[in-house]
Amino acid sequence: MNLKNKAQGLNKKAGIKFMDGREKGTIQDLYNVPVTVIDFGFLKGLDGEYLVFIIKENKEDFYFGATVITDCFKQFTEQEKEEIQKEGILILLSETKNRKGNRKYQTVLFYPDAETTEELPF
């Protein structure tokens, strides 16, 4: 295999299969709304790996997770990932400010109660 063919092959490996045919969704649209993650994976960026996931409630988009949610999903085993792919896992994302109030970060709650029931924008 020559360099050109190898390099072109790397282009195709830039994403995760479930991303094909989907658009990048806006993560803020998911804040404070319970959603069901049905698949996930990790991509490498300049700052390390980050989460990419899809939800049952929206077949059109995929989403990128920030550091906190990425770290949480990295703790799932391969067997647990398979269970998520079969049954899904309910999460609630939100945005929180630090104590000084000068920085926002993403938080995740697994299996939230049905207290927060906003409508999804799609």
Q: How would you explain this protein's 3D organization?
A:
23% of the residues lie in helices and 36% in strands. The radius of gyration is 16 Å and the shape is globular. It starts with a helix and ends in a 12-residue tail after the last strand. It has three helices and six strands. With 122 residues, the protein is an alpha+beta fold. The model has no long low-confidence stretch (mean pLDDT 87). It has a six-stranded mixed sheet, sandwiched between helices. The chain has one domain (16-110).
Compute the average pLDDT: 87
Strand order within the widest sheet?
1-4-3-2-5-6
Helical stretch count? Answer: 3
Q: Determine Rg (CA atoms, Å).
A: 16 Å
Number of domains: 1
- The class by helix and strand makeup works out as alpha+beta
Strand content: 35-45%
Portion of residues within helices? 10-25%
Termini separation comes to: 45 Å
Unreliable residue runs: none
User: Main beta sheet, described?
Assistant: 6 strands, mixed
| Element-by-element helix/strand order | HEEEEHHEE
How many DSSP-defined strands?
Answer: 6
Shape: globular
